[in-house]
Amino acid sequence: NPPLTNVQARDLDAILHPYTPLHTLPQTGATVIDHGKGVYVYDTQGNEYIEGMSGLWCAGLGFGNEEMVEAATQQMRSLPYYHLFGGMGIEPAIELAEKLKELAPVPISKVFFTSSGSEANDTQVKLAWYYNNARGKPEKKKIISRIKAYHGVTIMSASLTGLPYNHKGFDLPIDRVVHTECPHYYRFGQDGESEADFVTRLATSLRELIEREGPDTIAAMIAEPVMGAGGVIVPPKGYFEAIQPILDEYDIYLIDDEVINGFGRTGNWWGSETLGMTPKTISAAKQLTSAYAPLGAVMLPEDIYQAFVDHSRQIGTFGHGFTYGGHPLGCALGVKAIEIYQKLDILSHVRSLIPVFEARMKKIADHPIVGEARYCGLMGGVELVADKATKQPFDASVGIGPKAATLARQNGAIFRAIGDTLAVCPPMIITAEELNALFDRMEKALDDTEFLAKK
Ligand code: PLP
């Protein structure tokens, strides 16, 4: 490794990096990003990268969008801060909530704003508890989530998350959360089991879990349409259609975590539309503002809202809210992002790129160290394996995923290593030419990784 630059040394001295192997950081140093334009970002040493991950699955409009800058400036000038507590209001929040109600895939009555996806999912759980207290079912409090799900990092949302590194060392998950099977056929399908049989097995297993825990103790199930940070896992056809009737039967409602899938990523406004989910409530964040400011949202139907209103007659104030939930800057940028998505007809643009994405992923699936290249819309996961035929993973001590991501950076492309899966989720405004260049760089990185693995 080359010696650290001055800015890297300062970074190492001052920053506790999230999601980072802290023990190896001193050797590599951080890649300090300085600016961005379109789908490109540039580090402090002047290196250019195609941002193949939209930052953290969020910068759908890419970087340096002047209309967003203008909207932010105007909002900062007119009202940099106000809140929604105690019956106060701000117009950007009203406008954004109205837009979300219009776009929602199911009837939505109210929108509750947060600052992040984790806070949105944390709020979802509190709302489920409050709702069941309000409707006289105080025992119905557990939430079902799935192994490999990602729902955030607050104590509750990290508990919903089904990934070991979010639990290990933190004494999580807390009780009231139960995890069911992950719908990843490539990894969890059994020998000789068809996809349809796999779906049936998972549905049966969910029913057994509910029966074992007691249906009267379970409030809701939370699910991402396509699981993102667990490794871009696309459930098999018919998965949600198989599990939803079981949830309905036991009066367990479905919370749709659209934090990554929402706003066009899968080719529809919502991943739930692409994947056949009919949720009762929805969480959104990330592309909600195209990451130009932090914002999260929880969208809920009229019957839940009415139960809250009735409950507040008995117990008084609805006691939940964040200082920055519905921040004017976030809301103004949410309104502007949606306006730009609509002006660009981002859904048609994404749909026009899906065949390119698909063709490149199919080619990558043939690479000798790739076990599975899976995708939905403009998001994909490339799982690296030591043996293609047996699906044998690389020895964990090799850390092949992070090595591949580093080699990709050296080839001018940013992907995210999730274990040994390379995630790809470029800004939705990417052109076909840029997308092909991104995949050229991925292929080069895979060749370099294979060479390294053989050494
Ligand atoms: N839900 C999903 C599906 C996510 O992917 C994420 C973050 O990656 C979150 C929730 C948490 O969002 P945040 O990091 O904004 O708290």
UniProtKB/TrEMBL annotation:
Q: Which family does it belong to?
A: Belongs to the class-III pyridoxal-phosphate-dependent aminotransferase family.
Output this protein's name. Aminotransferase class III-fold pyridoxal phosphate-dependent enzyme
One GO biological process this protein is involved in is: gamma-aminobutyric acid metabolic process
Q: List the Gene3D superfamilies.
A: Aspartate Aminotransferase, domain 1, Type I PLP-dependent aspartate aminotransferase-like (Major domain)
Organism encoding this protein: Flavimaribacter sediminis
Keyword list (alphabetical) reads: Aminotransferase, Pyridoxal phosphate, Transferase
What CDD domains has UniProt attached to this entry? OAT_like (cd00610)
Molecular-function GO terms, alphabetical: adenosylmethionine-8-amino-7-oxononanoate transaminase activity; pyridoxal phosphate binding
SUPFAM superfamilies, alphabetized: PLP-dependent transferases
* This protein's record includes keyword Iron: no
Top-level taxonomic group:
Bacteria
State the NCBIfam families in the record. PRK06105.1
